[in-house]
Amino acid sequence: MTALLELAPLAAFFLTYLGWGLYPATAVLMVGSVVVLLLHRLMSGRFKDMHLITAALVLPLGSATLLLHDKRFIQWKPTALFGLLAVVLLVSGVIGRRPLMQRLFMAMIPEKIELGQRGWRGLNLLWALWFAAVAAINLYVAQNFSERIWVHFHTYGVSVATLLFVLPQVFWLASKTSADAAGQS
Fold first, then answer.
1. pLDDT of 149-174, one tens digit each?
2. pTM here?
């Protein structure tokens, strides 16, 4: 259910774009981001950091897109988001006890993962580089291809590429789980 909630604004953006174009789709994305933020708060009692960050980027960039009738602002949103994630990951790999990706994967995989600090820092760096690359590619596609191609790239190209990037890591990390912890579940 949570995954559907997470994808709803993007799906609504894409479907609205297909029927009415980029500017109505941008407005739908803005509303959808706020709705997801508030629904998660109602369901869990707290705001999710990623929803706050997304809304903090979508609302001003979407507003600029609509007010100035300039699609570049909404096209910069993924680059800003992925660039911010890359920076956060890089910083988390340098300061703090555990890199961010270690905390995220350990929350997703209940078994104890047998991976040293060097391995976690390497995985964290890999993700930082991934997000930096996706940020740069988004900017390239937005500036060098049609709006339609950018929307398709943004909607499902990034999602599919990220899934293909994540799956081998999930299997690799699952192979690093402790047999004792796995037997206790």
1. 999 999 989 999 999 999 999 888 88
2. 0.87
DSSP class of residue 112?
P
Tell me the one-letter amino acid at 5. L
Spell out the residues 6+ positions from residue 17 whose beta carbon is closer than 8 angstroms to its own: 24, 25, 151
Instruction: Pinpoint the alpha helices (H) of the chain.
Output: 2-20, 22-44, 49-68, 72-94, 100-108, 117-144, 147-152, 158-175, 179-184
Give 177's DSSP letter.
B
pLDDT classification of 1: cutoffs 50, 70, 90:
low
At 88-117, the pLDDT tens digits run 999 998 887 889 998 888 877 778 888 888
Single out the residue of 111, 29, 39 nearest to residue 74, CA to CA.
29
CB 151 within 8 A of CB 78: no
Q: How far apart are CA 28 and CA 35, in angstroms?
A: 10
Question: Rg (Cα) of the chain, in Å, rounded?
Answer: 18
- The closest of 84, 21, 90 to 58, measured between CA atoms, is 84
